[in-house]
Amino acid sequence: MAERGFSLEAVLSFREAELEMIERDLSRLVLERQTEKEKSQEMQRRKEKGFESMGGAAGPETGFLLASYAWLEHMEELLGAQKRREESLEEEYERVRQAWRKARMEKEKIVLLKEKFQGQERRKTLLKEERFLEFWAQSRDMGAKNTRKGEG
Questions:
Q1: Within 10 A of 15 (CB to CB), how many other CB atoms are there?
Q2: Do residues 25 and 92 touch, judged by C-beta distance below 8 A?
Q3: Is pLDDT above 90 for 63?
Q4: Angle 4-8-13 (CA atoms, 0-180°, nearest 5)?
Q5: Region at 5 (left for phi over 0; alpha for psi -120 to 50; beta for the rest)
Q6: 3-class SS at 152?
Q7: Which of 52, 92, 57 is nearest to 72 (CA)?
Q8: How many Cβ atoms are within 10 Å of 18's Cβ, its own excluded?
Q9: What is the C-alpha separation between 28 and 12, in angstroms, rounded?
């Protein structure tokens, strides 16, 4: 089986694919964070609206007040769980953002390395061409000198 040589192009493709995957995760997390914040705001509005309606209740109806307090307590529990969900998403977002920064830096390193290598290859090619032209010019000059010697 023939062995494949090391290729900066293959490494660059891998790094680009890795970066794209992380960017998709980052994008998903941004949308998820926004959705969860909107949910929290809606839950907070519902709680406040419920609390306001308790103040407008006519008379001290014990059953109504007990149900209202139980509902408020339930809303507090839901808001607490929602806050923990937001914090978890925030931690995941920071982790993925750091991974994105690292992946972007790794890709940039490969791009720079590839450009450097291509520059070295170009310089080698130019040097070969220059040497060939010098050889060609020298051989042409030698041919012209030999032709002149033969004329005289």
A1: 19
A2: no
A3: no
A4: 100
A5: beta
A6: coil
A7: 52
A8: 17
A9: 24
Dihedral, 22, 28, 31, 32 alpha carbons, nearest 10: -110
83: tokens are: 């806050």
Q: Return the DSSP state at 5.
A: P
User: What's the pTM?
Assistant: 0.63
Q: Is 1 exposed, middle or buried (CB count within 10 Å of its CB: 0-12, 13-18, 19+)?
A: exposed
Average pLDDT, the chain: 85
Q: Do 122 and 23 touch, CB atoms closer than 8 A?
A: no
- The predicted-structure confidence for 111-149, as pLDDT tens digits, reads as follows 898 888 888 888 888 888 888 888 887 887 776 666 666
In this prediction, residue 59 carries a pLDDT of: 58
Q: What is the pLDDT of residues 1-37, one digit of tens each?
A: 455 666 888 888 999 999 999 999 999 999 999 999 9
What b-and-e string marks burial along 25-51, b requiring 16 or more CB atoms within 10 Å of the CB?
beeebeeebeebeeebeebeeebeeee
DSSP 3-state of 9: helix
The pair phi, psi for residue 59, each rounded to 5°, is 80, 160
